[in-house]
Write a sequence for this structure.
DNA sequence: AATGCGGGGAG
DNA sequence: CTCCCAGCATT
């Protein structure tokens, strides 16, 4: 039996084997009880680059707050971002709102029903379009996500670097061949992702109890821990944030982040970024309006420290609380506004800011 | 083809 | 520590 005919046999047996495995290992997840494209769309956007365990409570809260796409379309974008707070990749929330409005206002509340038309919506790429098309409408189009790359790379011994365009096409083509043998495209797509999440895991795949063990090129050659091949990512950038937390009469000065940077449309404080960690307030180039304030009214001579690890940046933050006298409260730097504690609670904020507020004010 | 974008959990 | 998660948009 040569390798080629082994591979062909594996291809025809792959989907049925996963389907069988799935029947016994399927988790009970809320978005598996519906074919409502709105709910499936919402769950898929939430789950982009996000583990099920992390995304699930957000899904529940979103469905509670916005039971239909029309409800979401009506929402204030700030409230939507506030609900999204802590999930990261906030462009997902902005695109969610944009698409909800588009579907409601331009499509009469009806989601597009094909892979190709779904792909045209903001925030929907190849993976999400395939997921919605198959789960909600039964279209026979394969999902290709991180789980699928891992499972296929191992079972079929694909050593191509999955970050390259060539490999992406190779995996997509393979996935298309495989789904042809599936009984039900939706179940099969769920099955392969579930299999990757539970059985064929990144670190310690459960090969001993794997139904594909004797067909898996990686297992048979002992290479499962080396696949998939993925170019290592760029080193994380270190940044130093110095926050001046202006306070007056129980209110804090905050501003919306609008720059082309992290945390767009979330709220934080007056920020001075430096190339090196700062030890004292006098080392900072302070805003003109705050100078007299800083001389006399700084509350925190030693700042609160904060750390935020992002996948692409490591942020070291320091917070100086500064009491602003009434005489200067209308002289805030451009963009800053006073907010009461209640208002601040309703603003969407990065986790770094929320953590600071919690540790400072409870 | 490269880069930027969050935050958290697992090993 | 490192890796990576039901990826996508922009350049």
């Amino acid at each position: 039996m040569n390798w080629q005919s082994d591979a062909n046999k594996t291809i025809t047996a792959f989907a049925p084997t996963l389907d069988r495995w799935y029947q016994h290992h399927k988790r009970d997840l809320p978005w598996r009880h519906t074919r409502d494209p709105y709910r499936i769309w919402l769950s898929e956007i939430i789950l982009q680059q996000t583990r099920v365990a992390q995304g699930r409570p957000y899904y529940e809260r979103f469905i509670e707050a916005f039971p239909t796409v029309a409800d979401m379309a009506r929402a204030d974008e700030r409230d939507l971002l506030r609900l999204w707070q802590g999930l990261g990749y906030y462009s997902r929330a902005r695109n969610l709102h944009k698409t909800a409005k588009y579907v409601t206002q331009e499509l009469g509340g009806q989601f597009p029903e094909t892979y190709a038309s779904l792909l045209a919506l903001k925030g929907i790429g190849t993976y999400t379009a395939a997921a919605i098309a198959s789960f909600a409408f039964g279209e026979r189009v394969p999902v290709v996500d991180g789980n699928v790359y891992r499972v296929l790379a191992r079972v079929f011994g694909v050593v191509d670097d999955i970050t390259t365009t060539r490999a992406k096409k190779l995996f997509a083509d393979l996935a298309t061949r495989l789904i042809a043998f599936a009984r039900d495209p939706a179940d099969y797509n769920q099955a392969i992702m579930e299999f990757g999440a539970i059985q064929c895991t990144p670190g310690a795949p459960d090969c001993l109890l794997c139904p594909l063990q004797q067909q898996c090129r990686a297992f048979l050659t002992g290479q499962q821990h080396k696949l998939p091949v993925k170019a290592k990512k760029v080193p994380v950038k270190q940044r130093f944030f110095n926050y001046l937390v202006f306070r007056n009469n129980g209110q804090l000065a905050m501003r919306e982040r609008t720059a082309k940077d992290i945390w767009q449309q979330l709220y934080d404080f007056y920020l001075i970024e430096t190339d090196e960690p700062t030890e004292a307030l006098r080392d900072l180039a302070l805003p003109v309006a705050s100078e007299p304030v800083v001389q006399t009214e700084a509350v925190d001579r030693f700042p609160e420290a904060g750390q935020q690890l992002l996948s692409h940046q490591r942020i070291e933050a320091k917070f100086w609380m500064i009491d602003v006298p009434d005489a200067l409260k209308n002289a805030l730097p451009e963009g800053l506004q006073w907010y009461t504690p209640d208002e601040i609670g309703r603003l969407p904020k990065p986790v770094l800011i929320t953590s600071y507020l919690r540790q400072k004010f409870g």
